[in-house]
Write the structure tokens for this entry.
Amino acid sequence: MTTRIIATGASVPEQIITNDDIAKVVETSDEWITQRTGIKQRHISAGENTSHFAIETAKKLIERANVNPEDIELIIVASVTPDYGTPSLGCMVQKAIGASKAVAFDITAACSGFMFALSVADKYIQTGVYSNAIVIGAETLSKIVDWSDRTTCVLFGDGAGGAYVEKSEKEGIIKEEIGSKGEIYEILTQGYTPCANAFNDNESGVDPLWYVNMNGREVFKFATKSVVKSIDRVMENAGVTQEDIKYIVPHQANIRIVDVISNKLKIPKEKFYMNMDRFGNTSSASVPMALNELNEKGLIERGDKIILTGFGGGMTWGTMLITW
Ligand code: ACO
């Protein structure tokens, strides 16, 4: 018995912001952004919040999987940009689709969020607690970047992606691992909220550390090291070689990170599915958005072996080998 992906879906804002558009806001250029990141454009919210994209994705999943919302048992949304502190995006999705019997909650593991959420859903299904789940990564990163900081604002985009999974007798998730390295959490932070209250002298208001703060070079090093080791381990534990793998769907942060991973693992770059040129880095939405595109384009067939892999703040990583 495995957990199997039955349907995928995604939703992005209509508004497209090109590198030239960003060059009107901060001192940068299409050439710099393209060469250093591989990103050409990203979709940026015109005001819709994260729940909008999560809900649109959930509706597509229900339609494509042809399931009754009343039969959904579990909803997990991964996000660092929820609409509220509470309720969770999961509960907002539950209400919008009418999944009244489901249990719903959110997970935060930054750009590895979808991998963590899928791993948790898999455990609930493997242990027989639930038999199906909607798993979504959803973000509006445009609301948490400092639009005067060119070192970060050029990198991100908004959107959501997800999968409907269920218990199956066929092959699905074969091997997976998630991991954390909290000792270096300072290299990528966001959302710091100072403790201000009526009984101390702390000033309230938005702290500069509320925005995305990143040591790009350290994140680059962490990403390449952790993803290479993780893919290697998962393939070894599953007893497969790169020849068995049709596609690797990596977190869409930076094309140069994928270049390094491809070189180190000696896996041809063509096997890495990339769409960061059109969507930028959408954090927890990036892997499911790319997987959905791969699926919608008909580039994968049932029986193909695929690796999903992500890394992100925490620092965290997650890799999963699945049979499509
Ligand atoms: N436009 C023009 N110039 C810029 C820009 C910009 N947008 N941003 C930085 N620069 C300048 C810098 O000021 C610096 O100038 P200097 O040499 O005069 O000091 C120069 O470009 C080089 O800056 P670096 O930071 O060294 O550039 P680097 O080649 O490391 O690229 C980047 C930066 C793209 C962030 C890279 O470090 C990276 O990709 N790191 C990985 C982190 C990542 O992908 N994060 C994504 C979010 S986190 C996540 O997904 C988990």
